Amino acid sequence: MLKKRLIFTLLYNDGYFMLSRNFRLQKVGDLHWLKSNYNFSHISFSIDELIVLDVTRGERNANAFCESLKSLTEGCFVPIAAGGGVRTTEQARSLLRSGADKVVVNTPLFENETLIEELASEFGQQCVVGSVDIKRTLDGVYQVWSHYGSQCLPGSAAYRIEEITTKPVGEIYLNSMDRDGTGQGYDLNMLNLLPKVMPKPVILAGGVGNAIHLAEGLADPRVDAVATAHLFNFVGDGLKQARQSLIDRGVDLPVWDIQLLEQHLRSNKTAQCIPT
Amino acid sequence: MTIKSNLTVIDYGMGNIWSVLSALRYLGCDARVSSDPDVIVQSASLLLPGVGSFRKAMVALQEKGLDQAILEAVQTKESKILGICLGMQLMGSRGSEDGDMIGLGLIPNPVDKFNPQEIGTAKVPHIGFDLVHSSPESTLFRGLSRAADFYFVHSYRMLPGGLKGNVSTCVYGSDFVAAYEQDNIYATQFHPEKSQTNGLVLLKNFLAQEHDA
User: pLDDT averaged over chain A?
Assistant: First the structure.
């Protein structure tokens, strides 16, 4: 029986990590800041997966993003997904060579089917995460938005999602633009947009403010993983405590002992390899 | 401090060796990366990683003469080997991904796709952390709980029937081989380098075996 997952999403913008609220970005700090203030390598022991997205709106420096990714993922022993602006197989390959195991795509899902097929055939379906940004209209109708939430796509969100499930993607990342960064909790009604039989894992994102919200998401049988991108809500030991409280509530998350690291791994470290 | 190790990570162009190296570095082990058969034959310890298709990978090993180098190192020189994910599958007798293909034969069982009759509505690939049941005699799982979580991503699996070595299993529909060890041969279907401290301990146990050699 597969375990459910707790995912942390980092938003990268031109050298800085960001907070997002309803898709408006606010600069928080650079890589050095993230490492020194958040002790990121330690935080990564409280999550089951890491997603790093380049959300730079203008021209991107893909090399700089790959370098940040390498630096971030050193000492991070969970699956890592990366994306943002991936438009070619070569771009995807660079991310995979910089520590990513999976590539996140959003806009190409709707306008570049060839790329999705190429990615799947080159790296395998399990390597492709389809990300979908969803917004509710004033009359309560859900619609999918592409191009960083700037273009509303015609057709119902349910239709769009069903269409994506037929594409060669390994899993689907459902993000609520309305809840994004608000801390009000997930929009669980979005899950009603999913087809009755959902053949791919679903990651729910957008709106987490605390551990109870994470638990609410994970309690829904349609949800395989929950994500949060809110740096400040999980500052210090926040993520560690949130994870523990989920496990205490009986959520079936994977278990490992961080103490093992200190006791077992650090002891006689130098004796592990024979000199040549 | 890192110490130069006599561990070679075999690079045959399939999948992400970056994260394996990152985990080894974390454990203080400065492994070398090579696609040179001579280097592989001379290594006391080998790590065979890999993500992708069985057939493509086996062809890549054969084209570079790495299959023979691995067999010579493991069978003649008794070098230790750890196969990870596709690396473990390649150590099997054969694989049926993209048509039947013979494997390295270091583990006598074949590798086939998850059978829908066994797994029912469960999704394939089998992706995520799942529980691995190991036996107390296992060296790889030393210091870990007998049921510990590891990260999997695969659509093909090896069944345990008839295997003589130490078998650890995971249940997905039916029992499949999650890890295997016999003498100098070690293999995991899961990714220890993606399995938090559980995986780091397992890799450390493998490295410690190198030390005892």
Answer: 90
Share of chain A above pLDDT 70, in %: 93
Strands A128-136 and A142-146: antiparallel
Q: Which residue has the higher pLDDT, A230 or A253?
A: A253
Residues of A with CB under 8 A from a CB of B: 1-3, 5, 45, 48, 73-75, 77-80, 96-99, 101, 124-126, 170-171, 197, 199-201, 224, 254-258, 260-261, 264-265, 269-276
- Rounded to the nearest angstrom, the minimum Cα separation between A82 and chain B is 14
Cis peptide before A195 (omega within 30 of 0): no
Domain residues for the domain of B193 are 3-212
Domain span holding position A140: 5-272
Contacts of A197 in chain B (CB under 8 A): 121
Question: Which residues have C-beta within 8 Å of that of residue A214, sequence separation ≥ 6?
Answer: A6, A208, A226, A228, A242, A246
What is the count of structural domains for chain A? Answer: 1
- What is the C-alpha separation between B130 and A253, in angstroms, rounded? 9
B78 is annotated as an active-site residue = no
Among partner residues A48, A201, A270, which is closest to B1 by beta-carbon distance? A270
CATH number at residue B168: 3.40.50.880
- The complex scores an ipTM of 0.86
- Encode pLDDT of A7-61 as tens digits: 999 999 999 999 999 999 999 889 888 887 777 767 788 999 999 999 998 889 9
B134 burial type by CB count under 10 A (0-12 exposed, 13-18 middle, 19+ buried)? buried
Burial-class residue B158 by CB neighbours within 10 Å (0-12, 13-18, 19+).
Answer: buried
Counted domains in chain B: 1
| Interface contact flag, A273 B29, Cβ < 8 Å | yes
pLDDT above 80 for A100: yes
Do B22 and A73 count as a contact with CB atoms less than 8 A apart? yes
Q: How far is A149 from chain B (nearest CA, A)?
A: 29
- B69-93 pLDDT, tens digit each: 999 999 999 999 999 999 999 999 9
Interface contact flag, B130 A269, Cβ < 8 Å:
no
